[in-house]
Design goal:
By secondary structure, the protein is of the alpha/beta class. The chain has 8 helices and 8 strands.
Length: 226
């Protein structure tokens, strides 16, 4: 069973996470929607989101846990066939921080095995559960061929403040060059996603997957130190 999902935390500042992809996108006029999928994300909600994205002609980066992918193989395969990018969110949404490099690497590889069996491709990006990162997680990501991607803007879809609050937060943070974090198991996910897509269209931004703007990217420098 997956661990219960606490309120997501803001990621550590970039200067404290050497090598992590905690930054805005490199090109002005672009925005990347990243959607987290763990157990608790209902298939119907994901199907509706996929249909909405298809109508809008928008591709996203879906960060999936191994357990969600294993329980929803047909749907994960459908997302892949629609052209979405399927990436790694760990195996069962347990935090990778504090358990050492070997444990983190084993968890990442376990999720990779499930994802590869569904998509035929090997994920190259890792969003650690809860955005929790330490040096061992970064080393494990590098050792398994992943780059760590967090987010620059949290959609706050997991809050119960309402869509207006999420909208105000997103507008204040700015969508241009943003990596936006959404959560498919959040109560407000669908409504916030619809608002974000409208805002992207209004601002004439180009939604992209990580692979479209950062193809083949890896951790930029070796992680050193204790």
């Amino acid at each position: 069973m997956e661990t219960a999902l606490p309120a997501p935390q803001e990621p550590m500042p970039a200067k404290h996470v050497p090598g992590a992809a905690l930054r805005n996108l490199p090109h002005s006029g672009t925005v990347a929607l990243t959607i987290e999928l763990s157990l608790g994300a209902r298939a119907r909600v994901v199907e509706e989101a996929a249909e909405l994205l298809q109508r809008r002609g928008v591709l996203c980066t879906w960060l999936v846990t191994g357990t969600w992918a294993r329980a929803n193989r047909a749907l994960a395969h459908k997302l892949h066939k629609l052209g979405h990018q399927i990436e790694n969110h760990g195996y069962d949404h347990a935090s990778l921080r504090g358990g050492g490099q070997a444990r983190a690497a084993a968890d990442i590889r376990r999720a990779t095995t499930v994802i590869r069996s569904i998509t035929g491709g090997t994920p190259r990006w890792l969003r650690p559960p809860y955005g929790e990162v330490d040096r061992d997680v970064l080393r494990a990501a590098a050792a398994t061929g992943h780059r760590v991607v967090l987010w620059s803007v949290d959609s706050l879809d997991w809050h119960r403040f309402g869509v207006r609050t999420s909208a105000a937060h997103l507008l204040a943070a700015g969508l241009d060059r943003a990596i936006v974090s959404l959560h498919a198991n959040a109560d407000q996910f669908g409504a916030v996603l619809r608002w974000v897509l409208e805002a992207i269209a209004d601002q004439r931004l180009r939604p992209v997957t990580l692979a479209q703007v950062l193809p083949g990217d890896r951790i930029e420098a070796p992680v050193s130190g204790p």
